[in-house]
From TrEMBL:
<feature type="compositionally biased region" description="Basic and acidic residues">
    <location>
        <begin position="9"/>
        <end position="19"/>
    </location>
</feature>
<keyword id="KW-0489">Methyltransferase</keyword>
<dbReference type="GO" id="GO:0005634">
    <property type="term" value="C:nucleus"/>
</dbReference>
<dbReference type="GO" id="GO:0008176">
    <property type="term" value="F:tRNA (guanine(46)-N7)-methyltransferase activity"/>
</dbReference>
<keyword id="KW-0808">Transferase</keyword>
<comment type="similarity">
    <text>Belongs to the class I-like SAM-binding methyltransferase superfamily. TrmB family.</text>
</comment>
<dbReference type="InterPro" id="IPR029063">
    <property type="entry name" value="SAM-dependent_MTases_sf"/>
</dbReference>
<keyword id="KW-0539">Nucleus</keyword>
<dbReference type="InterPro" id="IPR003358">
    <property type="entry name" value="tRNA_(Gua-N-7)_MeTrfase_Trmb"/>
</dbReference>
<feature type="binding site">
    <location>
        <position position="107"/>
    </location>
    <ligand>
        <name>S-adenosyl-L-methionine</name>
    </ligand>
</feature>
<comment type="pathway">
    <text>tRNA modification; N(7)-methylguanine-tRNA biosynthesis.</text>
</comment>
<protein>
    <recommendedName>
        <fullName>tRNA (guanine-N(7)-)-methyltransferase</fullName>
        <ecNumber>2.1.1.33</ecNumber>
    </recommendedName>
</protein>
<comment type="function">
    <text>Catalyzes the formation of N(7)-methylguanine at position 46 (m7G46) in tRNA.</text>
</comment>
<feature type="binding site">
    <location>
        <begin position="262"/>
        <end position="264"/>
    </location>
    <ligand>
        <name>S-adenosyl-L-methionine</name>
    </ligand>
</feature>
<feature type="binding site">
    <location>
        <begin position="130"/>
        <end position="131"/>
    </location>
    <ligand>
        <name>S-adenosyl-L-methionine</name>
    </ligand>
</feature>
<dbReference type="GO" id="GO:0043527">
    <property type="term" value="C:tRNA methyltransferase complex"/>
</dbReference>
<keyword id="KW-0819">tRNA processing</keyword>
Length: 301
């Protein structure tokens, strides 16, 4: 394809994205008299190159440890703060939060999933984590505008931080604090020498297992079969995870959200692509230990 026609195709794709965003926002609730509707951000103004090297040194501030994350800045109304604070992240200020995020979207991109999850889980704090700055800023603006436009009734339980999750997940989440983790349409890093940059590796799965509660789930979806196979292979081989059978997930609303509701999923659907997904859960180690003991006893009887 010639450069000019490639650019025109890209522009058309961006226009469709902005259009589908503004359509989904028209359904927002009405405002109190006297309140001004906030402008929604446009994706086309927050584009940047697709990949940032997660192995590189990025100068993004990171909280010293989990006691230094002030979640009230992200979810003010859950902490009795009436307005929001532009969702700025505060670093290196000790602030033990009673209420912490339990659902996380790793590599949340433009944040479509957060908005889908917000109403389904109104009492949970949901956090998007994204490495690209302009994209994170888009999500911050979209959350703020959506809160304002709903008269501060909706989207109070979603937030976002800019961070490299490959290096910082333990700075944000305490041991066994998460219920659900989404890793959707992850960057495929096709070249063999770049497989170590993938967001699911044996090492990273051990990190995720540390932050997940027993029974907590990892949801994956992708339109790249090779990446799906890689993700499944690593989770199958990991001793702390087991696959959730499909009959158990058929009524789980998250499956529809993750395969149809994220920004990437919508793009795949528009282009007629396929999506593969999986759900794994953190094993109950106590139960596994007992089962093994029973097997040993049976063996010797
Ligand atoms: C292809 S996009 C998918 C976005 C979103 N999950 C969706 O389904 O629409 C992958 C996203 O992961 C982000 N990402 C990649 N590596 C990351 C890392 N180490 N930490 C945080 N975000 C990362 C990228 O910047 C990109 O926005």
């Amino acid at each position: 394809m010639k450069r000019s026609s490639m650019e025109a195709a890209k522009q058309r794709e961006q226009d469709k994205d902005d259009q589908s965003d503004s359509q989904s926002q028209q359904s927002q609730g009405s405002l109190e008299p006297g309140m001004k509707r906030a402008k929604m951000p446009k994706k086309s103004k927050h584009r940047m190159r697709a990949h940032i090297n997660p192995m590189g040194d990025l100068t993004i501030p990171v909280p010293m440890n989990t006691d230094y994350v002030d979640w009230s800045l992200h979810y003010p109304s859950f902490f009795g703060v009436p307005n929001n604070n532009d969702d700025k992240m505060f670093c290196n200020k000790e602030q033990k939060s009673e209420k912490v995020p339990t659902i996380v979207d790793i590599g949340c991109g433009y944040g479509g999933l957060l908005f889908e999850l917000s109403k389904e889980f109104p009492n949970e704090l949901i956090l998007g984590m994204e490495i690209r700055d302009k994209v994170t800023n888009f999500v911050v603006q979209k959350i703020n505008s959506s809160r304002i436009n709903s008269g501060y009734k909706d989207y109070l339980n979603i937030g976002v931080v800019r961070t490299n999750t490959m290096k910082t997940i333990h700075n944000y989440f305490k041991k066994e604090s998460l219920e659900k983790m989404f890793i959707l349409f992850a960057d495929p890093h096709f070249k063999k020498q770049n497989h170590r940059r993938r967001i699911i590796t044996t090492q990273l799965l051990s990190d995720y297992a540390y932050s997940l509660k027993t029974g907590g789930k990892i949801y994956t979806a992708t339109d790249v079969k090779e990446l799906h196979d890689w993700e499944v292979e690593h989770m199958e081989l990991h001793p702390l995870f087991e696959r959730v059978p499909e009959e158990e997930t058929k009524d789980d609303p998250c499956i529809k959200f993750m395969t149809e509701g994220t920004d990437e999923a919508k793009k795949v659907a528009r282009n007629g692509g396929s999506v593969w997904h999986s759900v794994y859960r953190k094993k109950d180690l106590e139960k596994s230990r007992n089962e093994i003991q029973q097997e040993i006893v049976k063996f010797f009887l």
